[in-house]
Amino acid sequence: MARNRVHNFRTQQAQQPYRPRGNTNGSSGDKSNKFANAGAAAGGFVGAMGGSFVPPINVTVNNNKNAARSGGARSDSLLPAPEFTSPAQVRNYCNTLRAAAVTLSIEVSMGAEILKGVLAAVPDPEGRAFGSRLRAAKVARKMNKAADDLKSAAKNAAACYSAFQQEYEEEINRVRHRARKPAQPVMNWAQQ
Prior knowledge:
Elements: H1 2-15, H2 31-52, H3 65-69, H4 87-120, H5 131-167, H6 169-179
Helix pairs in contact: 4-5
């Protein structure tokens, strides 16, 4: 009996065309068709992106009209205004100078390497072996020196604030206690 049911089920399945279960995309279920549809979808996506892709552009608008009057940063400079009326302004100026010098040092160093690579591709007029590389290194050496000087400027800016703290420690500490928050009242457990 059970053998008959299995035989009948097998015969019934063999007579029906193959249809995978759970196929909800409306296709007939052919695997090659499924992959063709996936390829068409991916191609359509890439084509749509390729035709309408726009690189991201950030636009920053700074309104410095009021900041310039109030002693804020100047619009034509990387550094804040040199107003040293408080230790915070000295620290801000030195930190900004240090950060700008480090960033410029890295950019100039990268520029020196790019310049060296570009100039090395120019053939030597006298036809010397490695002549183009020697000339490129000679030119890029000066830009590397500028990068080293910017790195030195960053170190000196940090050292400037450190020297300020050491030389004016007494004056800074004299007003530091006024800037602290008052101490929280302590619970006196003995008093009951």
